[in-house]
Each structure stands twice: as C-alpha cells, then as structure tokens.
Design goal:
The protein is of the alpha+beta class. It has 9 helices and 12 strands. The longest helix is centred in the first third of the chain and has 35 residues. The protein is elongated, with a radius of gyration of 32 Å. The model has no long low-confidence stretch (mean pLDDT 88).
Length: 284
C-alpha cells in the first residue's frame, strides 16, 4: 500500500484523472513527457513514499507503546463536537470496530451514566478557561463491564488565543485501582490486628507501623515513621543485622526486651522475616 504509482497518459480528461486518484494513483503526467521533468517527479514520489513509510513505522511504534501501557490519545473539536480517538483509545472504550472519527455524544455514551456530567462539564471548563484537566471516571463497555479510566486534556491555543481543539490521553487504570483496593483492604486488616506489625527498609528505618505496635511502645504510628526499628530495644540489646545476615535470613523467632517511649522496659517475643522481590533483592 506504500508503493507510489505515477500515471502517464495521453488523455487530458478530468474524469479520468479523478478515477486515477480514486483507485490509488499518487500522481499523473500527460504526454508528451519531458524526461528531466519525469525524473524529478519520480524522485519526489519516492522521497514522499519513504517519508510516509517512516511515518507509518513511527505510528506503529506509538500504537505498540500505547497498547503496552493501556493508554490512548484523543482530540476534540469543541465547536463541531467531532471527536477522534487513537486505536488504543477505541480499544479501551470497546469501540475498536468503528471509525476513529465520531461525535462527542457517542463518546459520552460510553461513560457510566452517573459520571457523564462530570466528564462533559470538566472538558467544557477546560475549553472555557483554556486550562488543563485531569480526572478519573468509569466507562461502561458494550460487553457491560465497567472500567476505571484516567483522562487528561489540554487545550491547544492558537496565537490569537482561540482553542480549535482539546487533545489529551485516556488510560485504563482498572488493574491499578484493583491492586490499590486490595492493598487498602490488606492495610485495614493489618491495622486491626491486636499484635504489633512493623515494616522496615533495608537500612532498618521504619516505613510502616500498625496502631497496635505504636500503642505498645507509647507512640502514634506517625511518630515512628523514619525511626530506626532498633530504637525499640535498650542499648544493651541492640544487635543490628548486617546486610549479609539479612540476605540469609529466614523466619526468625526470639524473645527480647523492648522499651517504651517513657523508658519502661518490657519483655517481647519477636518474629522477623526478610522480604525479597522476584529478582532476589531484599526489600526490608
């Protein structure tokens, strides 16, 4: 489809020229043809063809990247209401079989009914105030499933101050929100445990403490963030782990002494576990 075609004809017929372009001709010349002119026409066509191929390759790379991150791009003409969406944008909306050009009303139809006003008013404000917008909402695909998406838009303002279009991106964040919801449920469960839980980084600094852990030691959870976990123990009981010990650590249980914020010492049973990621690195 990228091969340039030059029609060489002895017929100076307008209808014939239209037919030639309709069936895919790139250009045409009428006989008699000057050889020098023909050479330059062919060179120009070949150069244009190479540029078109490079553009197509660039668009394919962009489309591939968009598929990987579930992110499409779009453009809206706020005056005519004409909407354009990239291939990945249409896939996210569940509209992969339709033309990339459609009306803004058709786009709104894919939005969860309870959130259509949010989408319409946010884009209208971006157009009116010539400002960027970023918000999340849900779309209802033709198969009935709800997907969470994040829309970002920016008005393309001309030198004269007009806004001929608003362009932006749409990203499917359904999986990210599901992971966040699962982590939120896990955190709520850990927060409710009647035993103390502390997460420390590889250097032993506390990055999370549940309410029970903080209360046992007389602190609030916020006061413990950034402190060294070894400060829970009296000076005589502090035996920091070396990186080698942490890398070789399995599940370890022991009894020790901890100290409260007011200096009071009390006996504890400690359970420690090194957490590793898939490549074997220790996270803490």
């Amino acid at each position: 489809k990228y091969i340039p075609i030059l029609m060489v004809t002895g017929m100076n017929d307008t209808d014939l020229i239209h037919r030639a372009f309709e069936v895919g001709a790139t250009d045409f010349v009428i006989k008699p043809v000057k050889l020098e002119l023909l050479v330059y026409r062919v060179r120009y066509m070949l150069r244009s063809s190479r540029n078109i191929i490079k553009l197509a390759e660039s668009e394919e790379r962009l489309a591939s990247a968009q598929r990987i991150v579930h992110l499409g791009n779009w453009e809206l003409n706020p005056v005519t209401g004409m909407f354009w969406g990239s291939e990945e944008m249409l896939r996210i909306l569940g509209m992969a079989q339709i033309s990339p050009f459609f009306s803004f009303e058709s786009f709104l139809f894919t939005v969860n009914p309870a959130e259509r006003h949010l989408v319409a008013s946010s884009l209208a404000n971006a157009f009116k105030n010539k400002s960027s917008c970023c918000f999340e909402f849900r779309i209802k695909r033709f198969d009935g499933t709800l997907h969470a998406v994040r829309l970002q838009g920016h008005p393309d303002t001309t030198v004269a101050g007009n806004v001929p279009r608003i362009s932006g991106t749409l990203q499917d964040v359904t999986e990210m929100r599901q992971v966040e919801d699962n982590l939120r449920m896990l955190k709520e469960a850990v927060d409710c445990l009647p035993i103390g839980i502390t997460l420390s980084d590889i250097n032993g600094n506390i990055i999370y403490s549940n309410p029970s852990e903080a209360e046992i030691h007389g602190y609030t959870p916020e006061e413990l963030i950034g402190r060294e976990a070894s400060q829970f123990a009296p000076q005589s009981h502090r035996k920091p782990f070396t990186p080698e010990q942490i890398n070789n650590m399995g599940l370890m249980k022991r009894e020790s002494i901890n100290i409260r914020k007011n200096g009071e010492e009390f006996p504890v049973q400690l359970t420690s576990l090194a957490v590793r990621c898939s490549d074997g690195r220790c996270l803490g």
